[in-house]
Design brief:
heterodimer, A: Rossmann fold, 3 domains, B: 317 residues, mainly alpha, 2 domains, 0% strand, globular
Chain lengths: 472, 317
């Protein structure tokens, strides 16, 4: 089967080992049974309340993310390499953050241009010179990976602020185990359900030095209108911590307290799921009602830890991304295990010229964009779209980067006619505290439309359960 | 427990109770409108009902003339009316959604299902929906949710806040319903004791699901005094002001035990209970029923404010 894309189930030599147990499974599944199971899955998701609102789209605010029942599988050997690469990258990103808010050695050494860091919108001048507990800035690092061959993985982007989606990793597994228990008896699938416990432990491990008791950890959400609210309440529930909004917290003296029915209670660690700009109206946006006035002062005087640390976003900026392999070499003295996708910075004249000449072959993204918005997939776009985008690019080149259109691997996915290959990516969640941890799994997103390379849920993507086969 | 969580639970049940009262009022108006139009001048009962909810102006502005069908829609479906059944159930569901992890799945299911059914109802042809169907649905739904809370929720602080919401709102609503009948509905004192008066009393008791109970308790003869006694001072009737106040006290005492801390809220509630437990119905009529009810509504609101200050804001130490 000669395909231009790496098929994770069938390669040139036939059925690949990790999927051996699944071939019979899907072939022996009658269509009615499949429809029944699909309906059951949707019912389960709806009952758990796993819904997802798309920004600015209107329509049903309780929309479900499509769930594909065909699992995506990695061998333990494949995973070992990914794990080493991901942890390495997470360590380098945190070293970088510690450095750029401190002496800036990497800049002094001329390895990264100063402007790119200090003039970056995500660089938070308010925390320059401050070292958070254990020097950790990004406690949950989500690394988006794509695969192009049996042994070729590329990092598409890093997420150092508040990567979302981990609830799907957990719930997808929960639903699969309920629906197809025998699959888990026949395949030794490594469990992922320890994630919440590890997250809690990670958060507690970075409590401020001033905290002399069992640290009180809370999750700070922007509120129930947020599209990821379900995830926030799900994680808070699994960790057994309070989910608070800005209005539930207040600052008094050197500490931060939450309002409870028994009066004020001191808070030690805030796992925040809101952006820097909204954390503290006295320090950042004065019009924000989501945050806690005075919080940053408490933070800087070591009264509370904020996870991820304000300012962590400078490490996952798309313009900084190019330099991550450099960070690995500079801080760790190691060769990068995971490769970057080659990237053209349109801010550079030479790069811009190349991008403009090859625009129809490239993927062009906004430097600060996310969620698959504001990007151009050259080979999939018509002429008019390309021309319109070229005009935007010419008007403000430094706002864009470009990458080759990657031959994203495919994984079998249920479609009306049976199964068919669909493009997938992978987001594992690496936890950084006193230890550095990675549960064997992640969120696989799948582009459900035939031929589509965009896996974002806001653009019609779905999700799959992701398996790592445990070692014998 | 987070103060906001407690507040959400408290308001969730207040809205649920309120939706039930609106449905009961709707039923009251519907039955009163079945009364023969003798003597003229009684057709403005809908306006009295809207007045009691403080939404008459809003209604007139939106619909103009007082057509029964419009009043029905306004009281049941209209989301512009904050005390319509639909508004209350939506608000209750929104509060529940925010604190879902504090609810058992059965309670959430019951609330969420009622919301979905409400949406289905509002899609149906209005002419196919008669008031009794709407009010029956509301009372049934309300009982289902309350039963789920009773049967499955842990007896913790959250449970107490839910029940406080129910009891406070119920006391307020009983006082208002009684006030509507006595002060607003009757065109003049001359009608006291007339056939019309009796019919309205029966209807009020019916709306409170209390007319049979009343007959058992007072031997079937209708008198304003006895009915007022029943709805205000009878500890056996679950919607009487006294019953509700006993409930409020019980749940506040539980909270004081759970938190090992008594607050001014317990004190305020006890004072109110002492008055109601001692009161004779003659005292009530001496003060003037309307004046008494108005004072009760105010004191009840004061108690709610006190609970808010002590528990739901989270700054009291």
């Amino acid at each position: 089967m000669a395909e231009p894309y790496f098929n994770e189930m069938y390669d040139a030599s036939g059925l690949r080992a990790p999927y051996r147990m699944l071939e019979g499974w899907h072939q022996n599944m009658p269509a009615e049974f499949r429809a029944l199971k699909q309906a059951e899955a949707e019912d389960l998701f709806r009952r758990y309340g796993i819904t997802f609102a798309v920004y600015g789209e209107g329509g049903d605010p309780d929309r479900l993310i499509p769930f594909d029942m065909f699992p995506r599988v990695f061998t333990s050997e494949e995973w070992r390499k990914l794990e080493r690469g991901i942890k390495q990258r997470a360590r380098a990103l945190n070293a970088f953050l510690s450095d750029v808010y401190d002496r800036g050695e990497i800049i002094r050494a001329g390895r990264i241009p100063a402007d790119l860091v200090y003039r970056n919108e995500a660089y938070e001048i308010a925390v320059a010179g401050f070292r958070p507990p254990l020097g950790v800035f990004s406690h949950i690092v989500g690394i988006d990976l794509v695969r192009t061959g049996a042994d070729q993985f590329y990092v598409l982007e890093d997420n150092c602020r508040t990567p979302s989606g981990v609830s799907y990793m957990l719930e997808n597994r929960e639903v699969m185990m309920r629906m197809f228990p025998h699959l888990f008896q026949e395949n030794r699938v490594a469990p992922v359900d320890g994630y919440a416990r590890l997250l809690k432990r990670t958060l507690a491990s970075v409590a401020p030095e001033k905290c002399d008791r069992d640290p009180k950890v809370v999750l700070l959400t922007p509120g129930h209108f947020n599209s990821a609210y379900y995830e926030h309440s799900f994680l808070a529930d699994l960790m057994g911590i309070e989910m608070v909004e800005g209005q539930d917290l207040f600052v008094e003296g050197d500490f931060c307290y939450m309002r409870t029915t028994e009066g004020p209670q001191k808070v030690d660690v805030i796992y925040r799921r809101i952006d820097d700009a909204f954390l503290d109206p006295l320090c950042f946006r004065p019009d924000s009602a989501l945050g806690v006035p005075g919080l940053m002062n408490v933070y800087r005087s070591g009264g509370v830890t904020i996870c991820s640390a304000p300012g962590a976003g400078v490490a996952d900026d798309k313009a900084i991304y190019t330099y991550v392999p450099e960070m690995v070499r500079f801080y760790l003295g190691e060769a990068p295990i995971l490769e970057n996708v080659p990237t053209w910075q349109c801010a550079k004249a030479d790069d811009l010229k190349y991008v403009q000449e090859h625009i129809a072959e490239l993927v062009i993204k906004e430097v600060h964009g996310s969620g698959g918005y504001g990007m151009l997939v050259g080979p999939k776009s018509d002429k008019a779209t390309i021309e319109a985008f070229a005009a935007k690019l010419a008007a403000n080149p430094s706002n864009y980067i470009a990458q080759p259109t990657l031959a994203l691997s495919t994984c079998p996915t249920f479609v009306n006619e049976g199964i068919a290959p669909r493009h997938v990516d992978l987001r594992p969640y690496c936890l950084v505290g006193r230890d550095i941890e990675l549960v064997p799994g992640g969120l696989t997103r799948v582009a459900l439309t035939e031929g589509s390379l965009v896996v974002n849920s806001s653009q019609g993507g779905g999700v799959k359960d992701t398996w790592v086969i445990a070692e014998e | 427990m987070l103060s906001r969580t407690a507040a959400n639970l408290f308001w969730m049940t207040r809205y649920l109770e309120r939706s039930e009262t609106t449905a009961r009022l709707l039923d009251l108006g519907f039955r009163n409108a079945l009364l023969p139009n003798a003597g003229g001048g009684f057709r403005n009962e809908w306006s009295a009902i809207l007045q009691s909810k403080g939404v008459l102006d809003q209604f007139t502005e939106k619909y103009g003339e007082l057509k029964q069908r419009n009043v029905e829609s306004f009281l049941f479906f209209d989301l512009d009316n904050p005390s319509s059944v639909a508004s209350c159930i939506s608000s209750a569901r929104e509060n529940a959604r925010i604190v879902r992890t504090a609810l058992t799945s059965q309670v959430w299911d019951a609330i969420n299902t009622s919301f979905q059914e409400l949406k289905a109802l509002s899609r149906r042809e209005r002419s196919s929906l008669e008031v009794p169907e709407l009010t029956d649905w509301t009372l049934r739904t309300s009982a289902l949710i309350r039963g789920s809370i009773e049967a499955t929720q842990l007896r913790n602080d959250g449970f107490r806040f839910m029940n406080l919401g129910y009891a406070l709102e119920r006391a307020d609503n009983t006082a208002r319903l009684l006030d509507v009948k006595y002060y607003v509905l009757l065109p003049s004192v001359a009608y006291v004791g007339s056939g019309l008066d009796n019919y309205q009393w029966t209807t009020l008791l019916r709306a409170l699901s209390a007319h049979r109970a009343y007959n058992w308790a007072y031997g079937g003869e209708l008198s304003a005094k006895q009915i007022a006694h029943f709805l205000i001072l009878n500890p056996k009737f679950p919607r009487s002001l006294l019953s509700c106040t006993i409930e409020v006290n019980a749940h506040l005492d539980h909270l004081a035990r759970i938190y090992d801390r008594s607050t001014p809220a317990q004190e305020t509630a006890r004072t109110l209970l002492a008055e109601l437990a001692e009161a004779r119905i003659e005292d009530v009529f001496d003060e003037g029923l309307h004046e008494f009810l108005t004072r009760m509504i105010t004191e009840n609101a004061g108690l709610a404010k006190c609970i808010d200050d002590q528990y739901l804001i989270g700054e009291a130490r």
